[in-house]
Amino acid sequence: MIDFIAGDLLTSGEQYIAQGVAEGNQEGLGTGLALKISKKWPEVQAAFKKHARSGNFDGGDIWSIEPANGRPGFAYLATQPDMYHATLPYLRKALRKLAKWAEKNGIESVALPKIGAGLGKLSWEEEIKPLFVEHLASGSTRFVVYEIFRNEFEQAERR
What is the pLDDT of residue 77? Predict the structure, then answer.
């Protein structure tokens, strides 16, 4: 099941949060969603960096950390060959693995941003959204895609 919503992904009540990152041992976790996650849950980024430095995080792979201490779990998807752009083959492979991993592990829900759009430089409407629907719409896991990011501060400014 897949839902497209507006809101603040970091305040979602979903069991896991997934995000796209560069493959390998790249230290590009200092911008966008990765930076927000590292500020709110620094132990998550530290654990991911330790794994990435092992050399076992290639294009299309996923790495996860279970929920703990009141925080959601996280799934990192290797959707980028470098810190500057995502690729459709990496994204396609990562989404397939994410759906299989979620089903196999009985994951109830996963929140996702528009992985590959923005810093990833792929087209949300023409390239990425159709892949999300293709790979995440079936199965018992609920995937909640934050198509429009809004947080309380941004909403207050608009009033």
Answer: 94
Q: What is the DSSP letter of 105?
A: T
The span from the CA of 112 to the CA of 90, in Å, is: 16
Residues 6+ apart with CB under 8 A from 147: 4, 5, 6, 114, 124
Answer for the pair 81, 22: CB distance below 8 angstroms, yes or no.
yes
- Point out the residues of the chain with pLDDT beneath 50: 153-159
CA 64 to chain centre: 11
Residue 98: per-residue pLDDT: 98
User: Which tens digits make up the pLDDT trace of 143-157?
Assistant: 999 998 776 544 444
> Among positive and negative, which fits the CA dihedral 31, 33, 34, 37?
positive
Three-state DSSP at 53 gives: helix
For residue 157, what are the CA distances in angstroms to 96, 151, 154?
38, 10, 5
CA pair distance 101, 2, nearest whole angstrom: 16
Q: For the chain, which domains are there? A: 2-158 (3.40.220.10)
